[in-house]
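Q: Structure for this?
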Amino acid sequence: MRLLLLAVGVQLLGGVGAGISRRSRQWSTTLGVGGAVLGALLGLVATAGVLLGAPPQALWLRWDVPFAAFAVEVDALSAFFLLPVLGLSALTAVYGGEYLLADEERRSPGASWFFFNLLIASIVLVLVARNAVLFLVAWEVMALASFFLVTADDEDAAVREAGWTYLVATHLGTACLLVMFVVLGRGADPLDFDRFSGASNAGLVFLLAVVGFGTKAGFVPFHVWLPEAHPAAPSHVSAVMSGVMIKTGIYGLVRVLTMLGPPAPWWGWTLCGIGMVSGVGGVLFALAQHDLKRLLAYHSVENIGIIALGLGLGVLGRSIGAPALAVLGFGGALLHVVNHAIFKGLLFLGAGAVAQATGTRDLDHLGGLLGRMPGTGLAFLVGAIAISGLPPLNGFVSELLIYLGAYHALVARSATTTLPALGVIGALALIGGLAAACFTKAFGVVFLGTARSSHATHASEPGPAMRWPMYGLAAACVLIGLLAPLVVRSLAPVLVVVTQLPSDVVRADVASATAVFARVTIAAIGLLAIAAALAAVRRTLLTSRDVREAGTWDCGYAAPTARMQYTASSFAQPLTRLFDGVLHTERRLVAPHGFFPREAALVTETLDVARERLYAPVFGGIGRVLGSLRWLQHGRVHLYVLYVAATLLVLLLWKLG
Amino acid sequence: MAIASVVHVLLALVCAPLMPGIVIRTKALVAGRIGPPLLQPYFDVLKLLRKSAVYSRTTSGVFRAGPVVGLAALLIATLLVPFGGSAAVLAFPADVVLFAYLLGLARFVTVLAALDTGSSFEGMGASREVTFSALAEPALLLGLAAIACHTSSLSLSPMYAGLGPAAWTQAAAAFAPLAGALLVVFLAENARMPVDDPTTHLELTMIHEVMVLDHSGPDLAFIEYGSALQLWLLGALVVGLVVPVRTGSVWIDGAAAMAGMVALAIVTGLIESSMARLRLLRVPQLLIGASVLSTVALVLMLR
Amino acid sequence: MSTWTDTILVCLVLTGFVLLGSSRLLRHIRIVAAQGVLLALLTLAAHQHALSARVLVLAVTIATLKGAAFPWLLSRVLRTADVRREVEPFVSYNVSLLIGGLTLPVAFWLSARLPLPAPPISSLVVPVAFFTTLLGLFVIVSRRKALTQVLGYLVLENGIYVFGVGLTADVPMVVEFGVLLDVFVAVFVMGIAIFHINREFDHIDADQLAALHDWT
């Protein structure tokens, strides 16, 4: 435990050091990166033991704030979430060092490193806090640190807008959490987590948790801040925010579920419903985007949806007393948390490398980058296959666990589970197909073909400090995919905490899942072996023959240009048109006229439907109502003092009268 | 792992190109021509393997990896599909999902290879391919979930082993829509009428064929063989359902399934001869219809 | 519980989906006719162990009314009115199909919670009746043409008839009354509806004439 706190201290020290040494860019980068990496390594050493089955470590110190105590604990669940946080933060810090230095015009990276390290430290604290006040303080520090990171480029109006959206959303979420802890605590002092058990109005607490934590996690319709904030932040920060920060929402939800006793079936239905809407909605909106980082941000909504599907099945399993379903559902969800951290981190880092090398994130201006940035391209390809959930990589492993849960739920033929299971299978299948469509689009348009603009023709590979973190994450995708049985087996301790089932029951169910993944691994290794063999066959066949190069077949057209390639928008058009009832894509067309048209243009833009149709009217209405009170604000100080005095008087009268 | 399972894998590997041969022959006969020999697809593959290759200057390693990974994924998928009621080589709970996702992987790399050429025609084909397959996926997985429900097993092999005549007499009402849904998936995923016209010569209207325009030599041989294999595998799922011969004798069951495959190829040829390709805008409706049929079957099984 | 009853009921569901997915008015009419024939068969199948003259007469009446007379009337209207033969839905065919696909599980779920005095002849009866009724309502709501509204009404009616046949083991007066009411209401509504159709067609024709006038 002390080692973990030491790690947090090292991170904070590094951050403060980086913040103070504003003079030297190099120096503050070294301190910032060093603090983050060293802290992460210390933290990994501290948590590894608990993950491998050591008993939980706890620490309780008095804290003279009402309801507060410095109560921290690392149990299997905390350790499980700490693992991706620490791993990804170390890798992204290394990447960020080069990424921030490469941009000479930027202000000193000191402030950025201060907030980065503060963000990581506060995430760690959120994951180990066992007191409501401590948790909320850490939660708030996390929100503010990430707010300052998002608004790093605050001279850009869009970035300021994104920052405000984020700030409002996260505070509305935190307000729900505040109420939730008060309801959970029922006046206990201090508000330690181990005093919360068997809440009387568990349903209310669950709903508050879904809204509060769901805002951070990005459940539809609370996701609106996510596609704004993630593209605005620097790429290594996007990777941390999308990869691990939003997972604190999932962590909080799972942690609260362990405090609430046996769940009601409607909780599971709610989570499954949210999962379906978030999953399908997220991937559809991702398909319609032109901005690479915005596309990835919407995919985070999609993956949070998949996680929610798993959680929903797990909750259903607990509520009807089906241990296999609980284990598979929660197992799939938790593993997907880690997997998503890995491949989404990788994809954001790749997107950052592309954006830095080309100066644009617009898909339709890119193309043909694989030749100029082979390392980044291959790493991005691995991430794209993984996030599409295709074998033999890690995305498939967690999705298969959730599928297994859904098939179990169907075959169990309980009236409570059949409809959600039907929905989960249908939604996962649709999400899989659409995600594959989206990432063939993203990878194909960015890295394949030829450059669509001068941005892409002058790109070059980033330095080793930016490339190796990507390689590391890509290797993790492959390893988790190929070592699936080991990975699934190692879920057992955390599943014991989450499902609150006896250890031997969980282990038996995990063992049967492990047997499945042993076969999957055989198939995966077979796949790689056969592919290698086929490549060898082709090479031997072609060695003695005259292999030529020619232009792409152009159907007899004499002068094809790079601008005639299929664009990202046209690639996605059949699907976006099919789902236009959801997307409401706006089209502005300047049609060509005559035989030699001077101009023609087509602009499509897909705005977030929840933002436009739900929040804009509500907040607009609130703004109008409050605007009518504006006469109170006139700038005369003595009248303000009068307000204060009048309020005090009224309060006194009310209290004493 | 019984010997029959291995033999069935070999049967798939050897006989797969026969399926498109029969389809082409049927179409020719219906049109009043004699048509190419039944073994023409074999000759094509062998001819292509003996040829050299031409690569576009635009392409990268992804273009060359496409056919190789695609065929490898389909070969592994062959190990998962039961034939004639006997178990597949690899059988485990939810192997259905691995099967569907291996097909997805094959499609993913084919689409990327198409985009690698930078040709707008191939981009167009790729775009249609991902659209239609995304819609076909739920139909396949929900349909197979219906069989899983009926037989209370999660793996393809016991699922199909349990589909005897008794199953049909019990729940014919549910199996009929299911067979319809699987047939639509079979036609759509294999780029057959009424979704795609495999014999068109106009790039603008093609889906699968246009994606592989730039492949040549051994690469094209891999792709041709791979698509024959995919025809066989999805066909085996349809035939396993509609030919409920489960006597227990490997020979009789295998022969019945083989006859079913031939019949399926002939039916495909007849469908192709008698139907026009749907407008592209109407294809999603067909596929959503298939998903709905699967849902109907599943709901009926669950009752 | 018999396979025949189940098969007929499933066919009824499938015709419903075809109705949602097809774009031609004439096909709509044929589908509703097919549903009528299916209902007649259902009447026979429901009483296959105790076929009596009454049942036979009932089935024949249903078949002639719903399977032949109404469709013939409607297609005659369609021919004489000379209107565009497209359905022109408010809700697209894809979405309609999806909504249909969602309605079916909901119908099953609803029927599982419905307390019944006596077990129906097949466990499919109540859900299919629910589904067909909801489908009829949906067609009325989501389609533009007056003719499709009549068709929607007929489908809704079919659902109610399924309910009646499936729940009553021996053909009591209720069902026969139901059929009588059927005929009465149907003729009544048809009268009104066709009057509306004529009005709507007049209206459309007038519009088209005005458009022509603009162009010349």
